[in-house]
Amino acid sequence: MKKYIGWIVFGTLFFYLLSVAMPFFLPVATVLAWLCPFLTRENLTGNALAQALVLLLAGAGAILFSASHGVFLGWGRIFSINVPLLAMFVAVSFLCLTNPVDKEDDLPKGNSAAVLTGVGLHLLGAIINLSALFIFGDRLRKKEALSREQMVILSRSFTAAAWWSPFFIATGVAFTYAPGMQWKETLLPGVIMSGIGLCFSIGEVCLFSKKKFSGYPLKKESLAVPLFLAAMVIFIHLAWSKAPVLPLICLLAPAGTLLFMKNSPRIPAVRNFIDNSISSVTGPFALFLAAGVFSCGIKSLMLVFPSLFSLTSATLSPELFATFLGIMILAGIIGIHPVVTIAIASPLLLPLNPDHSQLGFLFLSSWAVSTCSSPLSGVGLVLVSRFAISPGAIIKSNLPYAIAMWAIATLTNNLFFPV
After folding, report:
1. In this structure, which of 55, 97, 109, 399 has its CB flanked by the most CB atoms within 10 Å?
2. What helix, strand, coil percent values describe the chain, rounded to 5?
3. CB–CB of 168/124 below 8 Å?
């Protein structure tokens, strides 16, 4: 069955999209999603595997305990809560087929190069995700190792897209754990936060670094894909506010791939991608599925012991927002995946009946800040393993940024989501 793993991964996306119109297909997508980490279990190692096992066992224990006390959420909900996220993850992976071609141009230097590299990676990464980080990082390190300044620009510019990009898995997580979130209500504060993050990072490099920055040779045509797809999502969402964003992304990403992909003929290239490459996206499957089980376990325990999990605050106050955001960022820095902290925070905060868009902004902020500051996040692991950046350098370089963006996100929350 392993030789069909690519088509099993693709089937998760295909049957999820069918389930949007015909819900009886959701169990098929769920079974296929759970098959993926089982068939690729030899690739599950280290921190992600440990977190997944702890979450799965703790969640299962909580579910069984709650069931013995008369509370059971249903197997379908327990196993399928994060399947839409994984379908989105698969859909977005197709966009790597639109990667720009590296023509070996000389690296531009100076402050303008820092600006173009930061903005270019931010926009391209907002659509094709980690592939953009590989493209930029590989090009910058061809002649010498990445400098601290290049690492700062790459990590922060990329992760800042989590604040607003509908193609980022962070947005899918926010929709799942803040189910009433309206993307158009988080778009403006998200764009403002990402803009501040870019200005902070580029300003730090341009004003305080003694070395001349060597940047990525960005071409205008490289931005056609991200700008087009982002515009399409914004237009459709504003024109049809009830359009569910996750299924929309799951449709637009493959469609955009067929429109902009570099390979020709297109269909054989897509088939080859499914056969040989798409299975590489299954790494997060185990963690996300386990996080869904764990979240259902927490929700079940809350129904069994409602007073135990009751917060004293009647609302998601500015103080509570700042406290949760700080704890979630700190947890991310020490290696706990954002989807885990979000899965824990969501059932604790939802009973307060908060503005779900405010709750979504909290989750997006925790993701954007923690993932660039931790050597154990997906971005951090790429920097450590592929670009030989030391874990200590990642934390030391980004800790002041994390503190500053925590404070600015708290102020932005007060401005856009007043209690």
Report:
1. 55
2. 75, 0, 25
3. no
Q: Which residue has the tokens 């079940």?
A: 300
Residue pLDDT, tens place only, 68-93: 999 998 988 899 988 998 898 888 88
Residue 273, φ and ψ in degrees, nearest 5: -65, -40
Whole-angstrom distance between the N-terminal and C-terminal Cα of the chain? 53
Nearest to 201 by CA among 408, 401, 380: 401
Q: Is 109 helix (H, G, I), strand (E, B) or coil?
A: strand
Q: Is 241 helix (H, G, I), strand (E, B) or coil?
A: coil
Number of C-alpha atoms within 13 angstroms, CB side, residue 353? Answer: 1
Check: CB of residue 414 under 8 Å from CB of residue 325.
no
Neighbours of 190 (CB within 10 A): 27
For residue 214, give the 3-state DSSP assignment.
strand
338-349 helix and 318-333 helix, angle to the nearest 10 degrees: 150
Residue 312 confidence class, pLDDT cut points 50, 70, 90: low
- Backbone phi, psi, residue 109, to 5°: -130, 155
Task: Say what the pLDDT of residue 114 is.
Answer: 94
From CA 380, how far away is CA 352, in angstroms rounded?
34
pLDDT at 33 over 90: yes
Tokens of 402: 């994390």
